[in-house]
Amino acid sequence: MKNSILCFVICLFCISISAQKQVFQHRKLDFSDIELDVDKFGPYIGLQQGKFSSLEFGVEFQHKNIKLIRPTTHSLHVGFNYNFSHNLLGYDFGYWYTAGRLNMTYGLNAIFRTDYTVNSVGFAPVVGYKIGQLHMQTGYNFLTRKTAFPCNTFFMTLRFVIIKHRNFTWSK
Questions:
Q1: Is the pTM here over 0.85, yes or no?
Q2: Is residue 59 domain-shared with residue 91, that is, in the same domain?
Q3: Are 22 and 43 within one domain?
Q4: 21 and 71 share a domain?
């Protein structure tokens, strides 16, 4: 008698599991199709520190693709920096990218530096980390010629972006 009751309970349990599995397969939720795109635009102020210090001003455009798994952010920025102690002016145009919520940012800057007599252009690969509106990057300036003026080669930048415009777009 006990064996038949135990066999009956096991059969009911298996049938119940099979029925629940079929119900859940039909009700599967897929959040990967729901996305929110956010375009942000605004000025930034920053400090570049290497061998020499420079104050930075510019504007930045960010496009965020917010989704449940692996959101992405692309950003373009253009700005200038000035070293007051050595009368050195620089212009930067750059791009950075991040995939994920707490991941590193990777980018590249096109740079122009001058002390008003000698000019130099180049590029700077950068790696950074962004939390909220603060973005810290570090990189190395590869310039086209060896310069006689004091210019940062290895540097670290801390920027604060002041968002002025936001545009939200839902997509399914």
A1: no
A2: yes
A3: no
A4: no
